[in-house]
Specification:
- It is built from six helices and three strands.
- The protein has helices at residues 35-50, 57-69, 83-91, 95-100, 139-152, 158-161, and strands at residues 108-113, 119-124, 132-136.
- Helix 2 packs antiparallel against helix 3 and helix 2 (57-69) packs parallel to helix 5 (139-152).
- The longest helix is centred in the first third of the chain and has 16 residues, at 35-50.
- Residues 1-20 and 156-173 have low confidence and may be disordered.
C-alpha cells in the first residue's frame, strides 16, 4: 500500500506528514484469500501497528483480528477469538489481553520496554526457525506488529504455491 500526499478529504498534506497514522488499513477482500495477497495485507498491518499512536490501539487490534479471521485455510497456528469476546476486551481497554488472545497456546513471545517507553515484542510461531520482532508505542501494538510480521514471514504452504505466481526456486534440503 502506498500513501500519497493527498488526504482522504482531498486536501494536500504538509511535506513530511505521516499519513500512515491517518489512514486505516483497507479491508481485506475475502473473495480472493490467496496467501500472497494476505501476506501483503499483513505487511501493511505490521507497519500500521508499529507506527500507530496509543489512541489507535482498539482500531488496529480490531483490524488485525478481522485480517486473521480472513486467513487462508492453509495457515495453522492462528487463534481467532470469538468476535463478541474480543470486542468486550477492547471495550474494557484490555489492550494487552486482546493482543495476546490472538496468539495460539503454542506461540512463544517476549515483551521488553526500554527506558524511553518504546515496547518491543518478539514472537515465535510453532515450527518457525526464527523469532519476529517489532516495536511500537504500547505492548499491545508491539505484539500485533510482531504477530503480523511473523505470519507474513511464514512460508507459503505447498497447496497455495499452485495459485501463486511462479517462484524461482524451491529449497529441497
Amino acid at each position: 500500500m502506498r500513501f500519497s500526499l493527498i488526504d482522504s478529504a482531498g486536501a494536500s498534506a504538509k511535506p513530511g506528514a505521516n499519513l500512515a497514522k491517518a489512514n486505516p488499513v483497507p479491508p481485506f477482500d475475502p473473495q480472493a484469500p490467496r496467501m500472497s495477497d494476505w501476506s501483503a495485507r499483513l505487511a501493511d498491518m505490521a507497519l500500521a501497528c508499529a507506527d500507530a499512536f496509543p489512541c489507535e490501539q482498539a482500531r488496529r487490534l480490531r483490524e488485525l483480528r478481522e485480517l486473521l479471521a480472513s486467513a487462508p485455510s492453509l495457515l495453522s497456528s492462528i487463534t481467532v477469538p470469538d468476535r463478541a469476546t474480543y470486542a468486550a476486551l477492547l471495550r474494557a481497554e484490555a489492550w494487552e489481553s486482546a493482543a495476546l488472545s490472538l496468539l495460539g497456546d503454542d506461540c512463544g513471545y517476549m515483551l521488553s520496554r526500554g527506558t524511553g517507553g518504546r515496547v518491543m515484542a518478539s514472537i515465535v510461531l510453532p515450527g518457525a526457525d526464527e523469532e519476529s520482532t517489532a516495536s511500537a508505542d504500547t505492548a499491545a501494538l508491539a505484539i500485533a506488529a510482531a504477530l503480523a510480521t511473523a505470519l507474513r514471514d511464514t512460508p507459503m504452504r505447498v497447496a497455495d504455491r499452485a495459485q501463486s505466481a511462479p517462484f524461482a526456486a524451491m529449497r529441497l534440503n
